[in-house]
Amino acid sequence: MERVMTYPDLTINGIGQASGGTYREVRIDGVSKLKGDIECERLCLNGIATSHGTVRAKVLECDGKLNAGSLLDAGNARINGMIKVKGVFRGEEVELNGYLNVEGDLSAEKLQLRGALTVKGLLNAGDVEITAEGRCVAREIGGETIRTRRVKTGPWRAMWSWAIPKLVAVIEADTIEGDLIELEHTVASVVRGSRVTIGKGCRIGRVEYAEELKVHPEAKIENPVKV
User: Fold this and answer.
1) What's the pTM?
2) Per-residue DSSP letters for 7-73?
3) In the prediction, which pLDDT does 6 show?
4) Cα 118 from Cα 132, distance rounded (Å)
5) Please, which residues have CB within 8 angstroms of residue 67's CB and are 6 or more apart in sequence?
C-alpha cells in the first residue's frame, strides 16, 4: 500500500513567530513573523505577517497585510488588504482589493485588481483587469486580454485619502502589449495589440495595431501605426 504523506497545521493566534517548514494549512490571526521558507496547501491570514523567506501556497486568503521576501507563489489568491513582495510574485488566479507592491516581476493566469499597484518589473498575465482607485504603475504590462479603467470612489480610495489627499487614479506603464486591449485613464509610451481601444483619459505615445483601433475623442495618441 502506498504511503500518503500528511503534513501538520500551523496556527498562530495573537503575536507570534514560526520557523520555516511544510504544512497542510497555515492560519494566522494576529501579528506574526515567518523566519524561514513556508510551503503549504492553504494560507489564511487575518492580520499582519512578515516573511523572511519564500512563501508557497496553493491557496492564499488574506485579510490584512502580508510582507513577503524573495518569492510569493500564491496559486489561487483572494486578497483584501496590502501585499508587499521584495522579489517575484507568481499566481494562477489572483483577485486583489487593496494595494500591491512588487519589487520584481508579477505573473499570473488571471489578475483582477481594484485599488493601487506598483510593479517595478514585468506584469504578465493571460487576463489582466485593473480598476484603479489610486496610482497603478508597472514597467511593462503584457497579456492576451488587458483592460484598465478607474473609479473616483471606493473603499480603498477613501482609506488612503487622509494620507494622500491628491491621490490620482491613473494607470501608467512604459509598454503595454497584448491581443485585445481596452484602456481608460492610462498613460503609456507604447501600446501594441491586435484590437486596441484607447478610451477616455488616455495619453499614449505610439500605438501599433494589427486589426482595429478605436480612439475616444478625449484620448490623445501621438503616433498610431497599423502593422
Assistant:
1) 0.89
2) ---EEEEEEEEE--EEEEEEEEEEEEEE-S-EEEEEEEEEEEEEESS-EEEEEEEEEEEEEE-SEEE
3) 82
4) 11
5) 48, 49, 50, 51, 84
